[in-house]
């Protein structure tokens, strides 16, 4: 007797439909799985056998062959446990096959027959909706998949429950709270650095890449962390996109579902695969986990050059395409890059009080570690110097800007930018601004990309003032935040 | 395009007279270009990690001396040295580079373009034979040749410690004048030059003074001074400032400060230093 159950396997952030076919025939009792299944899927045999017994079903004393179709597609993960178990149960007539038609099934089984969560439940949910199917899966995932619009989700706690029929479609009454994160660092906690704070405001409003350079202990990391608190909550669409990546990576997507923009700060020992994604089976990297949020690289010259250079193309395109022998996988990665570095190996080059002990060549080598092309992609570059101790310790220091104020301005600027009619960047330029930009571009020999980036920053500065026209002052301010040339 | 090689032996005709009179002249000089370019001139030396101030001084003094026909002698190092060569060549003046490696070796690499120009039109010399790679000690040794070829040595910028001191010492040993451009007493990059002045170097504050020292008449131009037009320029002329300090000094908000600085920078009135401060270029 035969039965088939629909499930899916992850390919990038997509769930690709897979049919689990079971054939139970008389013969020598074996249990075989065919159809390019990886080790985790092969091990399903032992889990399924034990789970069936634990749930009070009977594992057939016959020849059981499970095929995963389409056979040429590589399948991985433990989400096949539940569909394999159901296919066997239907093929042996222990459960009615009809119930599981037009239903997608995903879940891992424990030996005790509990249904456990698997990575990528959101991808499975989105895939099921696009195929017009309901999803049967682990009860623990019910809260998460509830964000997918139009999904009918049958939450299954234990395999034995199915004996009483399919569980009812899960209904969630509560819309998850949406709030901005409680920032770990607030702008008002950082003394001085008013120019750098303004740069953070512009970066947050326009999603511009920002580089902070300065001696050790000057506050670069603190400032970069404050950036997280300036970002507005995720929009509905971004929420789902970001949560999807977290889900596929096997991380808790709840923070994204609550609307908190991702802020990822990988350590500089991060590998290429860790940063942009990779491995077998492919997993999204930090770049994709920071999708719609901030990727913060502290001590950026310490990162492996290969890892840094791997960021170049995804930064431009907002998506990373990993091509492997087994095929190409795409992960989204639209990020705001924040980077911090010392100006030289000893850290004190250009410090007014402390002299640098590095040779000119060492400084040059250090700065060129991040490479011209990546440097060219930094929209805003700001020097962060040690501040006057008096200012740091002064109880009555001027309060400076606050995170709440800036976040409001950022949200207003983003809203204004959305409301602008779509038009090319150039068309907003006032004549005086245009000629200023032209002269500056020629004098500083800016690349086409550098000029475009300058224009985008100027556009954001105008957005912060909610003015449609990009005036000369906006261009000039943008130029003041432009990266200095690599020596 | 290929430059002419020449070898000058101490005591034979063609060997620079001034250099031969120094306490420790090299036995043999290897060179590329024109031996006739080895005329007595002005050595302009300074820090490799030069500030815009040092570069500007090197440029202005070398440019002026070059246009007056004075040979500019230096070591082709990055920073003040190559800036002086460039300015001299730009002004159409003769220039001689003394290297710490074979005269045909492009070192430092970033000075390769100036070296190429000097090898065809002027002279690049060394006491090390063709093809020799640089060593740590060879630079200190070559400093005495720079000093020996020159009538006077001008230090445009030096921190502490500084390699320019060995050239200054060699100049004193050879009985040459040591001149120095004073810098801000607050700047670490000027401590060396200021100390030289305290130790007896002749301070050079404008071109007229330099001309008198070199014994050249008929000086026309002077070092460009900034006209303190407004408060912003006055503040920056006193000392290079970070945007935050600039805003505080002028009592304006940070956005106006960034815009004022950006405007002054794009008009060329001020420059942004690599350390993020703004000052006169």
Structural write-up:
The complex is a heterodimer of chains A (487) and B (281). Chain A is α/β, with parallel strands linked by helices and 487 residues long. Chain A is built from 20 helices and 16 strands. Chain A has 2 domains: 2-170, Ribosomal Protein S5, domain 2, CATH 3.30.230; 187-419, P-loop containing nucleotide triphosphate hydrolases (Rossmann fold), CATH 3.40.50. Chain A is elongated and about 85 Å long. Chain A starts with a strand and ends in a 7-residue tail after the last helix. With 281 residues, chain B is α/β, with parallel strands linked by helices. Chain B is built from 11 helices and 11 strands. Chain B has a 9-stranded mixed beta sheet with strand order 1-2-6-5-4-3-7-8-9, with helices on both faces. Chain B is elongated. Residues 219-228 of chain B have low confidence and may be disordered. The A-B interface holds A 192-195, 197-198, 213, 343, 349-353, 355-356, 360, 363, 382-383, 385, 387, 436, 439-440, 443, 473, 476-481, 484, 487 and B 48-49, 78-79, 159, 186-188, 242-244, 247, 254-255, 257-259, 261-263, 265-266, 268, 272-277.
């Amino acid at each position: 007797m035969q039965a088939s159950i629909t499930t899916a396997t992850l390919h990038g952030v997509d769930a690709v439909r897979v049919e689990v076919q079971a054939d139970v025939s008389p013969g020598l009792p074996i249990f075989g799985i065919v159809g390019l299944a990886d080790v985790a899927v092969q091990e399903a045999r032992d889990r399924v056998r034990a789970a069936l017994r634990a749930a009070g079903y009977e594992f057939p004393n016959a020849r059981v062959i499970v095929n995963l179709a389409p056979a040429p597609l590589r399948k991985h993960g433990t989400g096949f446990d539940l569909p394999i178990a159901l296919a066997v149960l239907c093929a042996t007539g222990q459960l009615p096959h009809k119930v599981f038609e037009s239903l997608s099934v995903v879940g891992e089984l424990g030996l005790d027959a509990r249904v456990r969560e698997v990575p990528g439940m959101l991808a499975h949910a989105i895939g099921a909706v696009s195929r017009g199917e309901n999803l049967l899966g682990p009860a623990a995932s019910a809260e998460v998949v509830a964000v997918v619009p139009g999904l009918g989700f049958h939450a299954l706690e234990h395999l034995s429950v199915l004996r009483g029929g399919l569980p009812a479609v899960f209904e969630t009454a509560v819309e998850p709270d949406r709030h901005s994160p409680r920032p770990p660092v607030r702008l008002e906690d950082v003394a001085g650095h008013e120019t750098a704070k303004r740069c953070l405001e512009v970066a947050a409003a326009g999603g511009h890449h920002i580089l902070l350079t300065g001696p050790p202990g000057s506050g670069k990391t603190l400032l970069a962390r404050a950036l997280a608190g300036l970002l507005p909550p995720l929009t509905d669409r971004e929420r789902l996109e970001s949560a999807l990546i977290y889900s596929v990576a096997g991380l808790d997507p709840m923070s994204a579902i609550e609307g908190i923009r991702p802020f990822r700060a990988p350590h500089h020992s991060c590998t290429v695969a860790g940063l942009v994604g990779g491995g077998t089976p492919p997993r999204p990297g930090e770049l994709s986990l920071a999708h719609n949020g901030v990727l913060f690289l502290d001590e950026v010259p310490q990162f492996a050059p290969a890892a840094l250079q791997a960021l170049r193309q995804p930064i431009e395109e907002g998506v990373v395409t990993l091509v492997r022998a087994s095929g190409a996988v795409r992960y989204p990665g639209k990020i705001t890059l924040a980077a911090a570095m010392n100006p030289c190996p000893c850290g004190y080059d250009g410090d007014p009080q402390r002299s640098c002990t590095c040779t000119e060549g060492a400084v040059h080598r250090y700065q060129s570690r991040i490479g011209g092309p990546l440097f060219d992609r930094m929209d805003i570059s700001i020097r962060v110097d040690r501040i006057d101790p008096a200012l740091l310790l002064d109880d009555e220091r001027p309060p400076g800007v606050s995170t709440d104020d800036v976040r409001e301005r950022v949200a207003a600027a983003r809203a204004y930018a959305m409301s602008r009619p779509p038009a090319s960047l150039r068309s907003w330029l006032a004549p005086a601004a245009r000629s200023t930009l032209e002269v500056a571009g020629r004098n500083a020999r800016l690349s086409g990309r550098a000029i475009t980036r300058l224009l985008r920053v100027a556009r954001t500065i105008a957005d912060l003032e909610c003015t449609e026209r990009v005036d000369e002052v906006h261009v000039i301010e943008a130029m003041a935040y432009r990266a200095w040339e690599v020596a | 395009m290929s430059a002419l090689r020449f070898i000058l032996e101490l005591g034979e005709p063609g060997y620079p007279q001034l250099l031969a009179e120094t306490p420790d002249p090299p036995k043999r000089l290897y060179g590329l270009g024109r031996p006739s370019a080895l005329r007595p001139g002005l050595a302009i030396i300074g820090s490799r990690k030069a500030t815009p101030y040092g570069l500007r001084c090197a440029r202005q003094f070398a440019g002026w001396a070059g246009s007056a026909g004075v040979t500019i002698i230096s070591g082709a190092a990055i920073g003040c040295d190559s800036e002086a060569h460039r300015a001299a060549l730009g002004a159409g003046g003769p220039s001689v580079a003394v290297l710490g490696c074979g005269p045909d070796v492009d070192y430092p690499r970033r000075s390769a373009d100036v070296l190429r120009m000097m090898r065809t039109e002027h002279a690049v010399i060394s006491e090390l034979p063709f093809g020799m790679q640089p060593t740590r000690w060879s630079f200190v040794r070559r400093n005495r040749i720079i000093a020996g070829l020159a009538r006077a040595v001008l230090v445009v910028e030096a921190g502490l410690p500084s390699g320019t001191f060995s050239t200054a010492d060699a100049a004193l040993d050879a009985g040459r004048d040591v001149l120095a451009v004073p810098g801000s007493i607050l700047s670490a990059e000027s401590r060396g030059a200021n100390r030289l002045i305290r130790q007896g170097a002749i301070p050079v504050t404008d071109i007229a003074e330099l001309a008198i020292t070199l014994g050249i008449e008929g000086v026309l131009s002077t070092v460009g001074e900034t006209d303190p037009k407004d408060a912003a320029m006055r503040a920056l002329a006193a000392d290079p400032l970070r945007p935050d300090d600039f805003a505080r000094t002028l009592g304006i908000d940070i956005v106006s400060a960034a815009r004022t600085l950006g405007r002054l920078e794009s008009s060329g009135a001020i420059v942004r230093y690599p350390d993020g401060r703004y000052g006169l270029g």
